[in-house]
Amino acid sequence: MKEFRNKTDLISYINNLKQNGQSVGFVPTMGALHQGHLALVKESLKNNDQTVVSIFVNPTQFDNPEDLKKYPRTYQADKSILKTLDNNIIIYHPDANNFYDGNIKSDHFNFDGLELEMEGKHRPGHFDGVATVVKKLFETVRPDRAYFGEKDFQQLLIIKKLVKKENLPIEIVAVPIQRESDGLAMSSRNKRLNPLQRLSASYIYHILTQVRYLFEYYDIVSIKKFVYEAMAAHPELKIEYFEIADEKNLKPVTRKKSGNKYRAFIVVYAGDIRLIDNVAL
Amino acid sequence: MKEFRNKTDLISYINNLKQNGQSVGFVPTMGALHQGHLALVKESLKNNDQTVVSIFVNPTQFDNPEDLKKYPRTYQADKSILKTLDNNIIIYHPDANNFYDGNIKSDHFNFDGLELEMEGKHRPGHFDGVATVVKKLFETVRPDRAYFGEKDFQQLLIIKKLVKKENLPIEIVAVPIQRESDGLAMSSRNKRLNPLQRLSASYIYHILTQVRYLFEYYDIVSIKKFVYEAMAAHPELKIEYFEIADEKNLKPVTRKKSGNKYRAFIVVYAGDIRLIDNVAL
């Protein structure tokens, strides 16, 4: 287990690996690791000589300071979990000042409109924050492959676009959503749910499951009505948005076209905890 | 495998068993057997020397002639299924005229108010029909134990009351609801659901599951509001009723008292197919 806190040290270590012809897989995380992250790490371990996991709660991607403050930080536990997977994982755990060279702020990006939908609308500055940190991480780690979960599906497409626009020689690998036994999408935020919120949260995936069933038979307007009403009925949950969007450009659609692939996207609050999920239709 | 169609023949066969000191378990069914029935039969096989399964679509317990007409009848398949469980099961498959001695109608019963709630309200004459047929079956089979599923929980309490009122030496054994992998309570009627209705029907149990979670924290008025609104949102389902009732007397309650046990009861239509379910709270 190698641990790096300093960018320059990690850069020379990776240089060395590359000179020895080793392939590098990379899993960027904000820590508070769960089975969702581990699925990414396992995928990387399978297909690369070396795997780098970054653990960095990036301040610039939080639009809400309270959310940043409350985001779970469990570094020692994270290290132990990674150790159980493979003892050769390289951990990059920078502090924000070293990472940003003392200038903690986001660049501004244009992702051809991907950044304007859904999360882009509801979390101003979020994707600039994400793209800034991922681009910097890519410059430091220079992986052959980088792994992202489909839970943050819009983020996944944005990272693919970033790599394309910046012409980076990195393969972006998408890994399906990992779910708890009751269907709740795994997320570090789930730890913050109180027992009733945790149980209630299973409702989100059950509604999405019904959406999958209904999608073949009902128009999108009726399905949206169903979701908003069903969510409004639940006393522990509050919907932020529900969209059915084209899987390629994430533009919300109101009518299906044959041949296109769609996904349903939802964000729901349980108390002040923001839960995100999506399913392929 | 012994099969009886004639009441008198079965009576003498049972007489013989009794004289030989054999205990008799009894599972009354309307056929179209599924894992729910088989759970009852297995329970009987475990605890009795002989098991009688009746297969009889009793006309007098249907308040709706269309429902009676469409009730699935699959006698040959039922026989094969029972054979796989145990080759010594005794099947009683009467025709209605022989069973009712030519006079197909119900007696009238008083079950101290149990018969007036929920199913009693929504299916006039149903419990008179059930009690009439079960009483006649008990007189013919004279079991030591009879097995009933908790899916028809009100029926179960009514049969217990019948046995008590009529002073019958029969132990009524309750068997928990058997569910499909998506939670839908097993029922012969499920066969009639079209693919979308079948998938949608899983919503019922998911809503009941949420009710179980919410019950500890919310008042009953809020929970009923949740269920009615969540069911109203679903385009494939239509709620007939939802009640939270005392497990002993089935009186619907609006306020919890500590020490009492409650159950949530629901009836939902998918098209013209009536689906019933309940959960302990």
CATH-defined fold name of the largest domain in chain A: Rossmann fold
Q: What CATH architecture of the largest domain in chain A would you give?
A: 3-Layer(aba) Sandwich
What order do the helices and strands of chain A follow? EHEHEHHEHHHEHEHHHEEE
Of all chain pairs, the largest interface belongs to:
A-B, 23 and 24 residues
**Rg of Cα set of chain A:** 19 Å
CATH first level of the largest domain in chain A = Alpha Beta
Percent in strands of chain A:
15-25%
Oligomer: homodimer
Poorly predicted regions of chain A are: none
Q: Overall mean pLDDT score of chain A?
A: 95
Q: How many structural units, i.e. domains of chain A?
A: 2
Number of strands of chain A: 9
Structural class of chain A: alpha/beta
Q: Identify the CATH homologous superfamily of the largest domain in chain A.
A: HUPs
What can be said about the biggest beta sheet of chain A?
6 strands, parallel
Indicate the percent of residues in helices of chain A.
40-55%
